[in-house]
Amino acid sequence: MSDTDLHIDCRAADDGTWLCGVTVSDGRSYTEHLVTVSQAELARYGADNNSLSMLVSEAFAFLLEREPKESILREFAISDIERYFPEFGPS
Fold first, then answer.
1. pLDDT for 89
2. Cα–chain-centroid distance for residue 27?
3. pLDDT of res. 68
4. What SS3 class is residue 3?
5. Do 53 and 8 contact (CB within 8 A), yes or no?
6. pLDDT truncated to tens, each residue of the chain (91 aa)?
7. What is d(CA 63, CA 72) in angstroms, rounded to the nearest whole number?
8. Closest C-alpha among 70, 49, 67 to residue 81
9. What is the rounded average pLDDT for all residues in the chain?
10. Which residues, other chains included, contact 79 with Cβ-Cβ below 8 Å and sequence gap of 6+?
11. pLDDT digit string (tens) for 43-64?
12. Which residues pair with 85 in a beta bridge?
């Protein structure tokens, strides 16, 4: 992920869920993704509203170590990662 840039923009939805728009760019092309993070997921992963962007950034670093940006789902809940990569779960 050394030559990859992430831009993460999170906003709260009316139901308390966070919606995080993520742009992944490698200088040649980019992909856009929407990641939802519920309050329960924040707690489960040991994060809070202040560390939300870091959680999403770490999730994308994890994913990009395993697959190209074009293979990452365009829209998913952060806990969906565990369905494909069980090792992503909280430590």
1. 82
2. 20
3. 95
4. coil
5. yes
6. 458 899 999 999 999 999 999 999 998 999 999 999 999 999 999 999 899 999 999 999 999 999 999 999 999 999 999 999 999 987 6
7. 7
8. 67
9. 94
10. 41, 44
11. 999 999 899 999 999 999 999 9
12. none
What are the structure tokens assigned to 68, written together? Answer: 């190209």
Tokens 């829209």 correspond to what residue?
75
Task: For the chain, give the longest Cα–Cα distance.
Answer: 37
C-alpha distances (whole Å) from 51 to each of 48, 64, 88, 89 are 5, 20, 17, 17
Instruction: Give the C-alpha separation, 91 to 82, whole Å.
Output: 12
Closest CA to 59 of 42, 49, 50: 42
| Phi-psi sector, 88: left (phi>0), alpha (psi -120 to 50), beta | alpha
Contact status, residue 33 vs residue 45, Cβ threshold 8 Å: no
Token pair for 87: 């090792």
* Residue length of the chain: 91
